[in-house]
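Example 262, ligand hypoxanthine.
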Amino acid sequence: MSDVVVRAAPGFRPKVAVILGSGLGGFATEVKQVAAIPYGELPGFPQTTVGSHAGKLVLGHVGPTPVAVLQGRAHYYERGRADEMKGAIDTLAKLGCETLLQTNAAGSLRLDMPPGSAMVVTDHINFTGVNPLFGECGDGRFVDMVDAYDPKLVAQMLAVARSVNILCHDGVYIWFSGPSFETPAEIRAARALGADAVGMSTVPETILARRAGLRVAALSLMTNYAAGLGGDKLGHEQTLAVAQGSEATMRRLLRLFVEQYA
Ligand code: HPA
């Protein structure tokens, strides 16, 4: 599965894998590139159907840190499969990655996190009832999800943000299946359950990454107030427009975090 990568970048051993979410693919330009491979050439990698996701694996360095950047992810809502990213994540683990850093666009459930805010994920709620490990055999499927989002990496993200005066919140991400947005009643329920941000990704990848033994960090960009909390009409264009407006800040925060990754 990883043969194609090994051939494209002989001897290259990435330490940090990065999955870039909607409108946040530009981080790939921060990478001093060794190779770039379209997902289509990588067995087990997903075919992405969301236009803003490029579908490319970029290998290279950010500062001193060797990285494997996935420009685009596949979502559960695309084909009704929660394990879309399994092949990709298992390949990243096999290549030697020790950490998976994810980004995503999300709706904010907190009035003190307006659109444009960043939030590092401290924990998640899987509200979909599905799991990417359905159908797996063996005791390895019973994955411990305590500290799934590595507390040390959370602290590092917050410290990096503070050091350059970027406001970064922390909180709980709740996974809804999409592709329709949530109803206001669902968002009230999510709030009562303790969620701070809502989105349609990240959680299955975190489960798969923990299964593969990777440390996980995730950074959410609030692109809107969640349904019923703000006046704005929700839609993918709105997600992309806000993501574009905040991309430079997100990119800087990610770059500093990856550069300083020990
Ligand atoms: N809900 C779910 N996913 C999202 C949202 C939202 O409000 N905004 C961006 N991605």
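Summary: Residues 105-107, 176, 181-182, 198-200, 223-224, 226, 234, 239 surround hypoxanthine (CB under 6 Å).
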